[in-house]
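User: Here's a chain of 316 residues. Predict its fold as C-alpha cells.
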Amino acid sequence: MKTFFRKIVLFVALLTGTMVQSAEYTPSTVPDPKKEGQQYYVSNPDAILSDSDVVFLNRCAARLEAQTQVELCVVALGSIGEVDCFDFCYELFQRWGIGGKNKNTGVLVCFVLDSHDIRIMTGTGIEGVLTDARCASIIRTEMVPSFKAGRYGEGLCLGALAIYEECTDGEAPEELLNMKSVTNRGSYGDDDDDDEDDVTTVNLVVWGLVLLFFLSTFIAVWLDRPKCPNCGKRKGKLTKKDVHTHANYKHGGSGICYYKCENCGHEWNKPYTTPKLTHSSSSSGSSSSWSSSPAGSSGGSWGGGSTSGGGAGSKW
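Assistant: Prediction complete.
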C-alpha cells in the first residue's frame, strides 16, 4: 500500500504541473536551480519531468562538470508565450552565465511543451566539440522520437547522455546507465513489493486524471487564443511569425505575428517586442565546481560563462 499511495501522490503532482503549464515564463522568472544548491542543474517548475528524471539529469550534469568543467543546464517549461525560443534561450543563458567564466563551456537544453520547441544552446568555448550539426543530430535522433511519443523525460535524459558522451569522447559511465536505462525509464528504487491488487485502482485514478487534464487543457487553450477583430470569436490561429531583430544588450527584439480566424477567415497581424538583455550579478561571479559546494548548501551560482548563440533547435 505504501507504493500505491506514492503513485497517487505522483499522479496528483503531475496533474498539478499540467494545469499550471499555461503560465508564460520569461528569462527573469524561470527558477534558477543553482539557488537550491551548487549540485542542481535542472529547472522543472511545471513538473513536466518526474523526480527520477530530475535526479538522473542532475547526476549526469554533475559527473560531466567534474570530468570536463562543462556546465550542463536543463530547463523544461510549459510555455514561453509567443517569444522566439532562440531569443528566450539566448537571454536565459547570458542572464545565468552558464559555463565557466572565460572558458564559456556551458550547454543549455531548453524544452517548451506548448510550442513543441527543443533547443540546445552552447557556450563559445564548447562549440568545437558540440558543433551545430552535432546538436541538430542529437535533437533529431535522440530526443524528438521520444517527444513525439509523449515521453518528454526520456527524450531529455537521452539527449543529456548523448551530450555527455560527445563532451567526454566516450561512452557514458555504468553509474549513469544503471540509474536509468534506455529500455526501462522507470523510477529509481526497488518496486518489487508492489501489490497487484493496486493496479485496477491506480488505472481508474490515471484515467480520471487524464480526462481532467484534457478538459483543463482545452479550456486553457481556448482562453489563450486571440479574439478575431472581425467576428469577435476566439478562433485566431498564429500562421506566421517574422523576427525583425533579436534582442541584445543594446536594444530589444521585435517582429510581427500573423493570425487567421478559423471561423470567418479574416487575417490580421500585430507587432510584438521583447525587452533588451540585461547583465545579472550571477554572470559576473567566479566559477564554481561540483566539489566546491557540498550537498545541502543553501545556494550557489553558475560559472559566469556566455554564448554567441551556437547550437541547434527544432520542433516536434
